[in-house]
Amino acid sequence: RAGLSTYRIGQQVLAYDTVLSTQPLAHEAAAKGAPEGTLVIAEQQTGGKGRLGRPWHSPRGTGIWMSLIIRPEIPLPKTPQMTLLTAVALAKTMWEETGVDIKIKWPNDLFIGDKKVSGVLTELNAESDRVNYLVIGMGINANLEQKDVPPELSSIATSLRIESGKPIKRVAFIQRFCENFEREYDHYLREGFERVKSEWEQHSYTIGKWITVSTIQYTLEGRAIGLDEEGVLILEDATGKRHKVYSADVNYGAN
Ligand code: BT5
After folding, report:
1. HSE (CB half, 13 Å, CA atoms) of 84?
2. CA–CA distance, 42 with 53 (Å, rounded to integer)
3. Model confidence pLDDT, tens digit, residues 4-35
4. Which of 51, 86, 131, 237 has its CA 20 to 30 A from that of 79?
């Protein structure tokens, strides 16, 4: 970790070879008192997961599969802001390391063009109304080559290497990410969400697009027009009525 200039993010790293998923390992470490900023990293995940139990393809040696433990003293309803903050820090790092333009698709995907290069999975541990810790899982397709992308993902997934034509130095990438994350996070804890919100909007793939959101309860169509001051997505439907979208799956274009 020579050259890492953070004071807590990434200062403790638990590195594994093959794991099912870095998420439960991070939960275990957090429950045992791992300090804020601890990173759990694996070379390969055999049961990597996305949201809603979806699988996350995590082949050996090609990606960055990691989970970050943070312990922010914020009210529960603000925890989704951490996903947005993470996406901003990732987008910056990817751009700095490759020069490739990165877009953030609400709430948790990073895109190059129309393909996903990274996804974020935020899991919360709380007691009554208090946040104990968050585990932020990040899957970054760093050095996957076309042959590493399974056929069922080939039309929706890409990697930094495929897009930039250059191999990614993973350790340098992780260091740079830790620095970017720490800077954003410290600023957020001191000053609030405003900066993350505007950076997120600048990098947004979603804003301005006509989208369909679906949850178990409802389906809604409209134009994504921005984030509110809490980080909730605002959608304007065909009649001009505005809706807040907290957490949902988003499809682009009308259904
Ligand atoms: C996500 O879920 O995008 C969050 C992914 C988080 C993965 C990290 S890796 C480290 C940590 N440990 C874990 O076990 N997880 C976290 P979601 O939005 O639900 O997207 C999942 C969908 O993305 C899948 O259903 C596939 O369609 C697609 N997908 C799977 N693997 C992919 C990959 N490597 N690259 C791009 N897309 C992928």
Report:
1. 32
2. 19
3. 999 999 999 999 999 999 999 999 999 999 99
4. 237
Residue whose Cα lies nearest atom 37 of ligand 1: it is 157
Q: Specify if 57 maps to a domain.
A: yes
Q: How far is the CA of 87 from the centre of ligand 1 (A)?
A: 14
CATH, residue 94: 3.30.930.10
Strands across the sheet containing 219-227: 242-245, 233-236, 219-227, 210-214, 249-252
Q: What is the ipTM of this complex?
A: 0.99
4 assigned to some structural domain: no
Residues near ligand 1 (Cβ within 6 A): 21-23, 45, 48-52, 54-58, 65-67, 108-109, 116, 119-121, 137-139, 141, 153, 157
46 in a domain, yes or no?
Answer: yes
Measured from the Cα of 119, ligand 1's closest atom is 3
Write down how long the chain is: 255
Q: pLDDT tens digit string along 49-79?
A: 999 889 999 999 999 999 999 999 999 989 9
- Based on C-alpha coordinates, what's the Rg of the chain? 18
- Supply the pLDDT for residue 255: 47
Measured between alpha carbons, how far is 11 from 29 in angstroms, rounded to an integer? 14
